[in-house]
């Protein structure tokens, strides 16, 4: 793809355009804001699609239609809901800690958006190209529990408090196995940089070429990250039948809307990390075999045939990595929705047993096996 | 003044302000949240200094680990929503004097120390790869010994926790 | 070793049983035209598919001669838990000079009915049944009080000869 247009060309072009008419510090500031807004808007569009998808998936899996009244096949349902949430009063209970009650949704939204920084959306399309990319996302997701704890405590409501404590216990314990399964892939790829991890999968995704341990790590990561997002079957923090709505029982209007948005942003970030680590991020599918048909397939996947095309058509190739990235993103999100609408909720002791007795020992053994593979040179 | 200096002063002010709030807040949960924010902004300073790894560890260990544990123990206590009683004047005076003395001593030590580039030591690029190699290196300036000592300490703590937990569960069964 | 074997067996069994559930919901998801059972109600008014057993409202069965089977025994009225049935009977004189109680008005308060079907079970004559109509709402509450026997209807005479003999 050498002759083709790269994302770095686009960013360089924007940079030069701005530099020609502005002071460097202003250019820097504008670029920061534009990049952040672009990432957030891209994620929000994903969230809109995810909410619609969740309703349709839930409907079809429960033998229902899902939303089908507002707009074509219910496409405008979400916008109607957003308008409803915006028009509703944001109510604060009398005995609540008002400051923390107001800050909690904003804080948790900020924290989940921070995790977007090191995500690599496409070749050269990354907000913060740092060498600790995946570790940073892990760190930020461990902060996510703070907003929930704040919300639960400041509501001055026992359901909220119980929900927050459950959520805390859950996130703190599931972080371990999520972290260990991330480490598995980091050990295989030899870098923490998201772009580096994706580039290491140019000749096959880790889930395909990483032997059995990578598949195990993938399964463990999906389970643990579902738990970290507080989604069913691990939605104890907001178990409707026992805790009303858990930590956001007392929230209404757009403050509740922010928590709702937050859940989907977290899901999006988790799915981005999973696709980066296991499914090759923006890398197209690659057949790691050595015969002509596989080569031809890989050439088509890498858009080799477009090199001879005129330059203006090759602009299309810019979208190709994004198509793969978002395709994998939504594949993993579909998995998470599939789990949510299939499995019944776990009890709190079953939840902790699953983590400490099954996932954690399995992921430690898995990591040791991967380390053996790497030391013996069995990996690709 | 360059932009990074401005950002440093903003972050430093936030660290100090939230640190002070931690001490002066009469609600224990708010104090814990202030501590959390103070520690987070310290991580911000690390990121500003380009020691990303330390910054991420600061967040994982202090914010995601220790403060969450503190908040949990606050949740488990009664009356966590009520204001703490006001401290006596003598207590206030004593702790004030001790804090000022500590600050003065630290400032004095720092001002006395002559910061100069160490000759012959090649600065290590703080990438994760280098940190990992340094951590397990047993050559000069390698950290394998403290690393292993800390491992043993953590293992002892882990075993201790398990022993306590097992004893309790046997008691309840009997 | 045995413990480890059992542990791994448990894990594998868990995966298999989870996969079963996942496959079922996936089947529902990919074949919505087969699996969706929701009725698109206002859109399918022309051809609704309501189960025959659906308990919509009570009717008094009339045959083609405008005859019903109600003997005004008021068992349904007594069975009704919330007084939504009122049987108004009258005394009439038959040809041979006997006085006889016949049904005058079978009053049905639909607004109070909970569709519990106890009247149907109570009726010894099988004179009433529930039909599967469902568009029962209206703007005027008084229209919900209905008289179920049609004007001019009368009690169906019992066959004098038992039909079993004829067969």
Can you offer a commentary on this structure?
- The complex is a heterotrimer of chains A (380), B (174) and C (167).
- Chain A is mostly helical.
- Chain A has one domain (92-376).
- Chain A is built from 14 helices and two strands, in the order H-H-H-H-E-E-H-H-H-H-H-H-H-H-H-H.
- In chain A, strand 1 (120-122) and strand 2 (125-126) form a beta hairpin.
- In chain A, helix 2 packs across helix 13 (316-340), helix 5 runs antiparallel to helix 6 and helix 9 runs antiparallel to helix 14 (348-376).
- The longest helix of chain A is centred in the N-terminal third of the chain and has 38 residues, at 24-61.
- The mean pLDDT of chain A is 83.
- With 174 residues, chain B is mainly alpha-helical.
- Chain B has two domains: 1-82, Four Helix Bundle (Hemerythrin (Met), subunit A), CATH 1.20.120; 125-174.
- Helix content of chain B is 75%, strand content 0%.
- Chain B has helices spanning 3-24, 28-48, 52-76, 89-112, 128-135, 144-173.
- In chain B, helix 1 packs antiparallel against helix 2 (28-48) and helix 2 (28-48) runs antiparallel to helix 3.
- Chain B is globular and about 55 Å long.
- Chain C is an alpha+beta fold.
- Chain C folds into two domains: 2-35; 57-156, Alpha-Beta Plaits (2-Layer Sandwich).
- Chain C is built from five helices and seven strands; from the N terminus they run H-H-E-E-H-E-E-H-E-E-E-H.
- In chain C, the strands form three sheets. Chain C has a three-stranded antiparallel β-sheet with strand order 3-4-6. In chain C, strands 1-5 form a two-stranded antiparallel sheet. Chain C has a two-stranded parallel ribbon with strand order 2-7.
- The mean pLDDT of chain C is 82.
- Chains A and C meet through helix 2 of A and helix 1 of C.
Tags for this entry?
heterotrimer, A: 380 residues, mainly alpha, two-stranded antiparallel sheet, C: 167 residues, alpha+beta, Alpha-Beta Plaits, 2 domains, three-stranded antiparallel sheet, two-stranded antiparallel ribbon, 7 strands, 28% helix
Short recap of the structure:
The complex is a heterotrimer of chains A (380), B (174) and C (167). By secondary structure, chain B is mainly α.
